[in-house]
Amino acid sequence: MSEITLGRYFFERLHQLKVDTIFGLPGDFNLSLLDKVYEIDGMRWAGNANELNAGYAADGYARIKGIAAVVSTFGVGELSLTNAIAGSFAEHCAILNIVGLPSVNAQAKQLLLHHTLGNGDFTVFHRMFKNISQTSAFIADINTAPQEIDRCIRDAYIYQRPVYVGLPSNLVDLMVPASLLETPLDLSLKPNDPDAQDEVIETVERIIKDAKNPVILVDACASRHNCKGEVAQLVDATQFPVFTTPMGKSGVNESHPRFGGVYVGSLSRPDVKEAVESADLILSIGALLSDFNTGSFSYAYKTKNVVEFHSDYTKIRQATFPGVQMKEALNKLLKTVKSAVNPSYVPSPVPQQKLINSPAEPETPLTQEYLWTKVSSWFKEGDIIITETGTSAFGIVQSRFPNNTIGISQVLWGSIGYTVGATLGAAMAAQEIDPKKRVILFVGDGSLQLTVQEISTLCKWECNNTYLYVLNNDGYTIERLIHGQNASYNDIQPWNNLQLLPLFNAKDYECIRVATVGELNDLFDKKDFSISDKIRMIEVMLARMDAPANLVAQAKLSEMTNAQS
Amino acid sequence: MSEITLGRYFFERLHQLKVDTIFGLPGDFNLSLLDKVYEIDGMRWAGNANELNAGYAADGYARIKGIAAVVSTFGVGELSLTNAIAGSFAEHCAILNIVGLPSVNAQAKQLLLHHTLGNGDFTVFHRMFKNISQTSAFIADINTAPQEIDRCIRDAYIYQRPVYVGLPSNLVDLMVPASLLETPLDLSLKPNDPDAQDEVIETVERIIKDAKNPVILVDACASRHNCKGEVAQLVDATQFPVFTTPMGKSGVNESHPRFGGVYVGSLSRPDVKEAVESADLILSIGALLSDFNTGSFSYAYKTKNVVEFHSDYTKIRQATFPGVQMKEALNKLLKTVKSAVNPSYVPSPVPQQKLINSPAEPETPLTQEYLWTKVSSWFKEGDIIITETGTSAFGIVQSRFPNNTIGISQVLWGSIGYTVGATLGAAMAAQEIDPKKRVILFVGDGSLQLTVQEISTLCKWECNNTYLYVLNNDGYTIERLIHGQNASYNDIQPWNNLQLLPLFNAKDYECIRVATVGELNDLFDKKDFSISDKIRMIEVMLARMDAPANLVAQAKLSEMTNAQS
């Protein structure tokens, strides 16, 4: 096989990176391309229910496997992906956004094809996507196509951002040399400038030596740019207390004796707030300091000794070192950091979280507070835990994750409905890694409605590793807290949610409703329930205005920000 | 009330144009704006299930009422609308695309807010939308805001295209003079240049005088730019045979003795093809000559005497008259056209359509051919008939519409799933015009899955004027015809579709399945069934590869276009 089709080349390259599920929908400009998915052993076509969900699924898959791909068709397909792709851009996920284009000839003739704006402009959607892509390729020449594909895959992976690749329908069947596949993709980071890096390490070590009360603060990009290992080593080497942001949650082992909790500025637990803000050095890793991630920018450090490690630069106090990437810099630092710690440093005790609910009568109606505390004891090692923007993303901050948990929550972009698609992506990734790995979704009844049909794809693939907790509080509680508590625009049409799995023809499934403390306790006490052998939907009935305390406080800050003139 | 809020001002202006339903979803940057909807008597907030569906609904509403509005929130909300807005742009629908933005202050400070890309760029989504909008406003100054709003509404209406309006959350509560509302919006078209128009009329009349065998061909923009009345008068005055394109269907009264059928190039019925192509003059009105609208560009006129009337220009043979708009030009022409027709012109007989099925045993499985013929006799005056891209949009071409029917089909843009949202918009518009008006949807089981949750909004508003025909052929039959007949990417997860209405808590509803000729005939024979007093879902079981003959032919042409190198 000295030559293969361009379409196959693309998927073989992805397969080399263990991308074994391709998300998306068929459309008349990508059908020939999709044929090639089936030529590759171990690769599958997810076949999503709509494109937005497919994009969310790719994002969820990428958060588990490091990179993902979604295929759509020109115009009508790709535009339904914009919200998902923008979210992956904001939150650093590597997505190959592959679009089947009309043939080169049809484009050149400016034919008034269906799926166009009717004005002969075939590059308009590509132009739109450039705004939310790390890079892009609008392929028109078979000779340079393999290199262009390699460049795009590489950039998506390195920068952990979406990349747009337009593939004309007539090119996917043209042949390219198969031997190109023998040279592995170069996914290595560009080395840091040695002088700049040396200066960074030297300065950081000097500050560390002077620190009496330092902390490590871990944020989202530590996970997304594959630095969880470095973080863990840094904690072990220094014994500094380690905290995460909401978005960084699951970036460190929360059972580690040096784990202190989740820092969210003024919305933090008082002991966590005190511990972080009284530090005389903060080693910040992979920060993405958005409003919801910081309690509306309410950080109140008392120190100027902040070192920020980022994927593309390092900042020490006010000095920026462009291009000093954290992966290499942290590894360099790890070689000597232990000896840099002042011998007189005494690891201080870290804040401890209350993880047991106060006793309550079984018939007590469930509250968010009870739920998030209780669920911590049900989580187990290896779980993938997904929380939707709304009460769930705030509530999860109050829970504790076992070791090797992966948390997924779209704290910065915050598009409601995201998690239903992301759950599919994570569940399919889990099937490929370890079919027993549990994928646990917490989604509100309002958010569920936006993307509900992707549960059908979970059923199709028999993702029997999923738990779908639907927090039913009769509408958009997070918005009610921000504005319009009694406004009907925050209401939704009530659904009979427990009818969803049978509607979608789920094979092995279970539907459960819990409304009281006793029902929840009984559920978690059942041994069978913890074994992931079917798709489960658990509808959790909650009062309309019940919400985690940190969300109530955040909502007040948000309305103030919105009303600012 | 000498002053009103800017938010209220916007909705009052829309209310003046009889926009009484506002589509969209709440989000933290538009909540204060939404409060204002409730201040206006007779205006309602639809509250859609997701933004894409809301955009489709606005499009459907605009096709009935001439203009519509959809409200979303910054970033996450608006980006989910892009596909719908691009469709409204391609197909000429007037949509106010209103986006709630972060406050002016938050933008100026480049705060790393949620719903941003995390890079401080607050204009990026506006820039993306400019590509698919007639015009836009990114409002930042309360003093010029009312004029900007007026300009945007005006341009949307005049050009029948979407317009983007960004409204910062802090501005919607600022006051503007109420007296501004007393000056009605100027929605008049700019007058045509009199000299150019006179030359057009004179030339057209000269060609008409010479014509022995002329025809009128009506396309989508005749309806969209409000020229159905002019078309009807032109047919009456000249007695020329009149045809429509697929996209122009319902632009003329199909019961009119001079109506000859639907012309789709080589995919037309032979008698229609012959009648149009042998004409020695074609008066084309509002043409949008896309592939699916022309049988893949297979027009084969034998005449060079083609006169094209467009919303923004006129073309006579090879001569273009920029700025000569059809509305005024047709009205001018109508004053004298009767006398311009050659006295020796004898109105030739027009092609007649077979509208009765061949007799079949009751247990005969239903076919598309039987359905589309049979359903013609069930349609009645005033119906709104909506057909999804796929077998329905092709099948409907074989049906006949009663007078005053409105047909909705997205032939150019062709985004599957569009019709479920559009049905909601049309049904809510119908409630406002005439609650007895029936809204009849034909959608495939594949397309339904993309946007199914909008049926929930139909249930919420008790749109008991709707008939939802789900053509169940077990997947994407249109794609199977184009490519990959047995490819699993054209399969879908089968759903128990008749469980949808109870899932969504429909109040008055009926669920019916028909699979045979006899069952369909019995259904249409029931008098009760024709009375629109509940939401009905009728699942029509069809064979996987059964399709209207014109679609089978189109699919062959499409695959050829795709494969062109």
UniProtKB/TrEMBL annotation, chains A, B:
<dbReference type="Pfam" id="PF02775">
    <property type="entry name" value="TPP_enzyme_C"/>
</dbReference>
<feature type="binding site">
    <location>
        <position position="28"/>
    </location>
    <ligand>
        <name>pyruvate 1</name>
    </ligand>
</feature>
<feature type="binding site">
    <location>
        <position position="473"/>
    </location>
    <ligand>
        <name>Mg(2+)</name>
    </ligand>
</feature>
<feature type="binding site">
    <location>
        <position position="157"/>
    </location>
    <ligand>
        <name>pyruvate 2</name>
    </ligand>
</feature>
<keyword id="KW-0479">Metal-binding</keyword>
<feature type="domain" description="Thiamine pyrophosphate enzyme central">
    <location>
        <begin position="202"/>
        <end position="334"/>
    </location>
</feature>
<dbReference type="GO" id="GO:0000949">
    <property type="term" value="P:aromatic amino acid family catabolic process to alcohol via Ehrlich pathway"/>
</dbReference>
<keyword id="KW-0210">Decarboxylase</keyword>
<dbReference type="Pfam" id="PF00205">
    <property type="entry name" value="TPP_enzyme_M"/>
</dbReference>
<dbReference type="InterPro" id="IPR029035">
    <property type="entry name" value="DHS-like_NAD/FAD-binding_dom"/>
</dbReference>
<dbReference type="GO" id="GO:0005634">
    <property type="term" value="C:nucleus"/>
</dbReference>
<feature type="binding site">
    <location>
        <position position="475"/>
    </location>
    <ligand>
        <name>Mg(2+)</name>
    </ligand>
</feature>
<dbReference type="InterPro" id="IPR029061">
    <property type="entry name" value="THDP-binding"/>
</dbReference>
<dbReference type="InterPro" id="IPR011766">
    <property type="entry name" value="TPP_enzyme_TPP-bd"/>
</dbReference>
<keyword id="KW-0456">Lyase</keyword>
<dbReference type="GO" id="GO:0000287">
    <property type="term" value="F:magnesium ion binding"/>
</dbReference>
<comment type="subunit">
    <text>Homotetramer.</text>
</comment>
<dbReference type="InterPro" id="IPR047213">
    <property type="entry name" value="TPP_PYR_PDC_IPDC-like"/>
</dbReference>
<keyword id="KW-0670">Pyruvate</keyword>
<dbReference type="GO" id="GO:0005829">
    <property type="term" value="C:cytosol"/>
</dbReference>
<feature type="binding site">
    <location>
        <position position="479"/>
    </location>
    <ligand>
        <name>pyruvate 1</name>
    </ligand>
</feature>
<dbReference type="GO" id="GO:0030976">
    <property type="term" value="F:thiamine pyrophosphate binding"/>
</dbReference>
<keyword id="KW-0460">Magnesium</keyword>
<dbReference type="InterPro" id="IPR012001">
    <property type="entry name" value="Thiamin_PyroP_enz_TPP-bd_dom"/>
</dbReference>
<protein>
    <submittedName>
        <fullName>Pyruvate decarboxylase</fullName>
    </submittedName>
</protein>
<dbReference type="GO" id="GO:0004737">
    <property type="term" value="F:pyruvate decarboxylase activity"/>
</dbReference>
<dbReference type="InterPro" id="IPR000399">
    <property type="entry name" value="TPP-bd_CS"/>
</dbReference>
<dbReference type="Pfam" id="PF02776">
    <property type="entry name" value="TPP_enzyme_N"/>
</dbReference>
<keyword id="KW-0786">Thiamine pyrophosphate</keyword>
<dbReference type="InterPro" id="IPR047214">
    <property type="entry name" value="TPP_PDC_IPDC"/>
</dbReference>
<dbReference type="InterPro" id="IPR012000">
    <property type="entry name" value="Thiamin_PyroP_enz_cen_dom"/>
</dbReference>
<dbReference type="InterPro" id="IPR012110">
    <property type="entry name" value="PDC/IPDC-like"/>
</dbReference>
<feature type="domain" description="Thiamine pyrophosphate enzyme TPP-binding">
    <location>
        <begin position="400"/>
        <end position="521"/>
    </location>
</feature>
<feature type="domain" description="Thiamine pyrophosphate enzyme N-terminal TPP-binding">
    <location>
        <begin position="5"/>
        <end position="108"/>
    </location>
</feature>
<comment type="similarity">
    <text>Belongs to the TPP enzyme family.</text>
</comment>
<feature type="binding site">
    <location>
        <position position="445"/>
    </location>
    <ligand>
        <name>Mg(2+)</name>
    </ligand>
</feature>
<feature type="binding site">
    <location>
        <position position="115"/>
    </location>
    <ligand>
        <name>pyruvate 1</name>
    </ligand>
</feature>
